[in-house]
Amino acid sequence: MSRTRWVYMLHYDKPIGDTGRPGMWAQHYVGSFWTPQRIEHHRAGTSDVSIVTAFHAQGIAFTLVLLRPGGKQLERRIKQNGHFKNYCPVCTRAPWQGLWVNDTPRRKPPKGEQ
Ligand SMILES: [Zn+2]
After folding, report:
1. Which helix (H) or strand (E) covers residue 79, if one does?
2. Cα–Cα separations (whole angstroms), residue 27 to 1, 5, 47, 85
3. How many domains does the chain have?
4. How many angstroms separate the alpha carbon of residue 27 from the centre of ligand 1?
5. What is the band of 15 on the pLDDT scale with cuts at 50, 70, 90?
6. Best exposed site among 40, 54, 70, 99 by fewest CB in 10 Å?
7. Do the Cβ atoms of 60 and 16 come closer than 8 Å?
8. Is residue 107 one of the residues assigned to a domain?
């Protein structure tokens, strides 16, 4: 099989949730796809991902900011590593590379931090 799965991160123009409470808001979404049509489903609000649908319902647009070949396992590791904002080139002037470039995370997230 020659098809490649891709892991991606979306950055949204505005956060949703309660930005005053850690862990209760979000401005990024990490997922993976076989075909980029998945991104169009996110844009149209038809991807059945609840947080993506919530952004869509509030009319908040996204930018595809990170993309690399990888499967579900990499996607899971990226999600567990967290710190999406630190990897996001829109949010951070010198974004971390970590799993988006290498196969080892930059560091383990401190306890209690997302
Ligand atoms: Zn961002």
Report:
1. helix 72-81
2. 34, 23, 17, 8
3. 1
4. 6
5. very high
6. 40
7. yes
8. no
Condensed to tens digits (0 to 9), the pLDDT of residues 78-98 reads 999 999 999 999 999 999 999
Would you say residue 113 lies in a domain? no
**What is the CA(52)–ligand 1 centre distance, in A?**
15
Please state, in angstroms and rounded to a whole number, the distance separating the CA atoms of residues 12 and 87.
Answer: 14
Q: What is the pLDDT of residues 26-64, one digit of tens each?
A: 999 999 999 999 999 999 999 999 999 999 999 999 999
CA of 9 to the centre of ligand 1 (A): 9
If you ran DSSP here, which 8-state letter would residue 2 be given? -
Which residues have a beta carbon within 5 Å of ligand 1, which is an ion? Answer: 11, 88, 90-91
**Euclidean distance between CA atoms 75 and 19, whole angstroms:** 25
User: Does residue 114 sit within a domain?
Assistant: no
Number of other CB atoms surrounding residue 77 within 10 Å = 16
Structural domain contains residue 82 = yes
